[in-house]
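Our preliminary data section would be incomplete without showing what the modeling component actually yields. Below, a chain of 157 amino acids is followed by its predicted structure, encoded as tokens that our downstream tools consume directly.
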Amino acid sequence: MSSRLSGPFGGSHSSLAVSIPRPPLPDNSGCRTSIYRKIEYCRTAQGVRAIDFPIDQIIAEKHNGQTVTDNLRLSCYWCNSFKGSDLSSADWATNRQIVPLFNPRQHIWHDHFKLDGLSIQPLTITGRVTSFLLRFNAPERIEERELLISLNAYPCA
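Predicted structure:
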């Protein structure tokens, strides 16, 4: 059964209430403890937020990703919203080549990005497409980073 909902920007959306069970986390995941304390894309710490970050899959189930520790990571609202289930993006700065996104289980953050004041600057083509897709330097993300830095809560190492 469908219902009409008002959207935050006017208009309406069709909605179908469906409950989809999520698979349980693996017993050995250590979620929200060791490797799950920071966002591995934007380097924001879990502890500075009023709400918990969701645990998300690096490679989504639709791409045959599994719910195992090596495929899980914390995701802030921004990173999760912009990345979605994407695994790659076009490099618009050069030849529109399709480039895999930064994978926190295969890559080292400092090899692909550097923090330059309030901005996260890409150092590689992988860093460039990831920074573009996840909008690391969008105005609202810069404002948030500025606030977190003033509170001595950013970056999370």
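The helical segments are 77-83, 109-112, 125-134, 139-150. The radius of gyration is 17 Å. Preliminary results of this kind motivate Aim 1 of the renewal.
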